[in-house]
Amino acid sequence: MLFIELLKAIILGVVEGITEWLPISSTGHMILVEEFIQLNASAAFKEMFFVVIQLGAIMAVVLLYFHKLNPFSPRKTKLEKRETMSIWYKVVVGVLPAAIIGFFFDDWLNEHFYNYQTVAITLIIYGILFIVIENRNKYRNPSINHFNELTYKTAFLIGMFQVLSLIPGTSRSGATILGAIILGTSRFIAAEYSFFLSIPVMFGASALKLMKFGFSFTGLEIAILLTGMIVAFVVSVLAIKFLLSYIKNNDFKAFGWYRIILGLIVVGYFVLLA
Prior knowledge:
By secondary structure, the protein is mostly helical. Helices cover about 75% and strands about 0% of the residues.
């Protein structure tokens, strides 16, 4: 039994590690995966697991960007330290909209929108938007290519786009990347800012779920949670490196088409199941 449950946690960790950073909706994939892989645990534990497993994913960002996001690094000049603090201030500004709305409405949104119909619709809609926006920007040059060109107003507006990700199937990275590109950032800045925004968002969401669940775990639950988090961390490192390498020479249209296809698969699967 232990081996089977840990194997399930490994698979879920792989799915989380890939889909958290690519703009293709981790929730959409988890809904599909849950149909085939059911953890032998309580409903409360599973609800907590699918959020807290993100801690493993977020530690990948902390590892990969530790120097860039560390304002106290002795290897940085005073100017570089000020620029690093400026990034953090812009992250705080960008996080505020989703943090406030999510704190008050997270349970209500999950109760009313955590279903395959919503996920399928958002997968398809945002897939189409990625294709449309990339086609529109084909011959346009981004106006924001460095973080010091990212204003607080733009950071806040990107944060407003992140609010959309509270609806399952949207994708947090998808919403922020799409919003950032619409507002004139380069794909690289859009992706990195999306990564940075995820740090307080995911830590906050995980802390809330842990407090709601409590800290009384069985040995099996601890093993499942740690396995999922560790796998999500390792896979996230690879996924982030892949995405940053990919967008140097490619746009996001491939992810748009993938979302549309996945959305249609979700609809088809559950319609046939009904």
